[in-house]
User: Which sequence fits this backbone?
């Protein structure tokens, strides 16, 4: 039995464990498909770091996914609205995402295509050599480029529940600030005096975003949100499996460097530097004809955007793993920390001095914990 796109399989769940609204919604959908009450079962899937719940629905002819998200963030436009809109938008431009078969936006319920359980992180762990890993990632980068360019066109920013663009306030407060609050203070117990670090970073953040072209930004394009699904045309090779993208509800316009950095500096896979360099070269060659400005600004902007992303990752791992006690996050802090140190060492900017000083203090705390 499969484990599904969101995690490991748990034991069978009686229907009375679902919300009554979810049971009624699912029963109605399946009855319209001619599936009788005694012909289907529901299996809960371990969730991610969000408030969403996922269930596999096993019925004749295959399986489906029930997504239950009754309290989505957002006001006029909620995360559920964005998910529904972006699922259609991405599919229309050729990005393989789960089909939405039915939805009840008021109740926060969706019936989705079941994409299986073959995450990119698993394929990397089982790859026979570095060449196969590079081949796998080239297929993912091909999809990333289509998503960045095609989905960036005619994106309706009013349907992005969070912000329509990746802006300086988001970086300052919810990436750099997130790192300071949750990782430096909350996880390591460091004391901070005022907002000197974020104030020093702000001009760098503003300049980086101003100089960057804008494309579609997934904002969590990492190996747990990428699935490899075999199709009838695939004959054996893992890297020929169809790349499927999930967890895209936070999409908006942003720098092209961000999703590439999220993919290559992913703590779940912790790619070798040789692999990263080969994939950066591949990405730049592929976008050269359609986005020449990306390559022109890459050396200056990619390390900074990668740094912003890495600060967000460490904040998230500390918040989810330490504060909320969720499994599957704290153990990846060492890999994310190594990425942060390497990025800071590669960037020479006086504006980063306060952050570098904090990282040096943090390194002592982490060393004492080992």
Assistant:
């Amino acid at each position: 039995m499969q484990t599904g796109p969101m995690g490991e399989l748990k034991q069978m769940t009686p229907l009375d464990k679902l919300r009554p609204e979810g049971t009624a919604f699912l029963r109605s959908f399946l009855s319209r498909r001619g599936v009788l009450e005694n012909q289907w079962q529901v299996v809960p899937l371990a969730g991610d770091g969000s408030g969403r719940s996922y269930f596999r629905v096993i019925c004749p002819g295959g399986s489906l996914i029930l997504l239950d998200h009754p309290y989505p963030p957002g006001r006029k436009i909620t995360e559920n609205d964005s998910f529904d809109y972006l699922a259609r938008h991405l599919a229309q431009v050729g990005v393989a995402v789960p089909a939405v078969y039915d939805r009840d936006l008021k109740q926060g319920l969706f019936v989705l295509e079941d994409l299986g359980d073959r995450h990119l992180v698993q394929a990397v762990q089982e790859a026979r050599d570095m060449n196969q890993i590079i081949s796998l990632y080239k297929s993912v980068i091909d999809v990333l480029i289509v998503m960045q360019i095609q989905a960036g066109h005619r994106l309706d920013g009013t349907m992005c529940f969070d912000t329509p663009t990746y802006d300086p306030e988001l970086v300052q407060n919810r990436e750099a600030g997130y790192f300071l609050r949750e990782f430096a203070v909350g996880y390591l117990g460091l004391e901070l005096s005022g907002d000197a670090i974020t104030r020093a970073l702000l001009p760098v953040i503003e300049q980086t975003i101003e100089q960057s072209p804008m494309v579609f930004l997934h904002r969590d394009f990492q190996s747990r949100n990428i699935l490899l699904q075999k199709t009838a045309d695939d004959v054996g090779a893992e890297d020929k499996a169809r790349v499927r993208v999930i967890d895209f509800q936070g999409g908006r316009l942003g720098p092209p460097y961000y999703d590439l950095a999220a993919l290559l500096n992913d703590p779940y896979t912790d790619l070798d530097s040789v692999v990263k360099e080969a994939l950066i070269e591949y990405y730049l060659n592929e976008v050269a004809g359609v986005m020449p400005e990306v390559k022109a600004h890459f050396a200056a902007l990619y390390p900074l955007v990668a740094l912003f992303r890495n600060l967000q990752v460490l904040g998230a791992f500390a918040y989810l793993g330490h504060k909320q006690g969720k499994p599957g996050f704290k153990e990846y802090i060492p890999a994310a920390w190594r990425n942060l140190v390497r990025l800071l060492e590669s960037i020479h900017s006086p504006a980063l001095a306060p952050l570098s000083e904090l990282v040096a203090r943090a390194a002592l705390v982490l060393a004492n914990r080992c």
